[in-house]
User: What shape does this take?
Amino acid sequence: MKRILVAEDEDVIREFIVINLKRAGYEVVDVSDGAKALRTFEQESGRFDVVLLDIMMPETDGFTVCKKIREKSNTIGIILLSAKSQEMDKVSGLMLGADDYITKPFSPSELIARVDAIYRRVTMSAPVTESYDLVSGPFVLNTKSRTLSKNGTPIELTQVEYQIMEFFLNNVGTALERTEILNKVWGENYFYDTKIVDVNIRRLRVKIEDEPANPKYLQTVWGFGYKWVA
Assistant: This one.
């Protein structure tokens, strides 16, 4: 069963979300604030595929909930909801580990498309029967366990980060355009711009580079995109 936790303090919006997700086949657990979201997540032992969090919630905001849930699970999908269009809100949420964001107001079709995309990514994390290692310098990415290590030390990745790394390691030395990365990882029907690629690259560099501000492996191709340098 496709299970999703929805945390939204506005009753009308929460009802709108719940109705449309249930119509799309999701089992929905909904709460009205961040503190309840964390308690529910703990009580359910994290048995959710996706979490939908409003940023501006009483008691505990969506950023805090996102951070705490991400600390407990790298595989769960996290989407932030925000009435704000400021770039900093989006960047802050993505840097804390969110996979995506939706800016209010949004249509039922956009909501379902975004949740479905995250759900598909989460289900891809299940082990596969055949595997191979992608090796580049000190890095080894195992496609069965969907894990990455550097000099034998595991690096924890979200499913978005794993897919980005897999794409780069399958295209070592090739300059990849931002839109190409966006289409590969988020899907061709993704609603927003390539800024989400830039933020996830920044987050990845913090995890894999010795000097994130001076990246050795995940390099920028100015005015175009990024490339992996072996």
